[in-house]
Amino acid sequence: MVDNMVKDEIFGTRPTFLKKYLKESDKLIILPTIWVVTCVSGTNPDPKTRYLVFQECKSDDDFLKKEDTEIFKKFFKFPIYQIVMGENDVSIKNIYNDDVEKLSLSAFKDWIKDQTKCKCDSGVGATSRPGFSGFFRTNMGNHFSLIDVDFLLVKDNNIVFLIEEKTYANDDESYIGYGQYLSFQEIYNDIIMKIDDLFFFILFIKDEDYILKYDVMKNGLPKRKGKNIQYWGYMIPIDISEMQKTNIEELIKLFEGIK
User: Fold this and answer.
1) pLDDT band at 3, cuts 50/70/90?
2) How far is the C-alpha of 235 from the C-alpha of 244, rounded, in Å?
């Protein structure tokens, strides 16, 4: 998520419906967005080495303190690196040991390739996007993929929510981009722990009274047959029968009430 926008695989950024309601809660803490970098399986098929997990911060002062990061050891199979993107360099902090280093952008690109065992030539692209997303799309090339989850929430310092927000909902089935669905499968299968205190929801939101909630931890992300949707491309449908219909008031109460 970027400020008051969430990213969309096809259409770029779009306004977020959910953020203002999350910010109004005194029980939920919104943490910096998680980025997952993946070396594509054709280059590195090893799930133990092909991923990097980042949190992008606005400044070094936003780096989480060690006592605030212990929770992540419980939920993620890999270390999480917090990063601050500068104009010419990047600060990197391993939140598991508090080690911080500063690299040039060129050295950071090589560091990502080394960490993911991605032995390939980096591509050169162009984008107007700022921060890590812009750096990635400009420098890393087609041997890598990048995905984020719109919201990372913490409650009572022992419960974590991963929330993906889609600002539309249909009455029969709703859609996720094919590439995004594959990346969510990787997050679910390879990156997060399957434990009771971790929740992963995909929300399809029409308005405050019509929200469809797909529970990833309960239903998984099975292989599905996609379909071509006009103007959208190849999409993965999720039928309404697999989701729970709710509204914003009930949804926030659900998040706040989970123990």
Assistant:
1) very low
2) 21
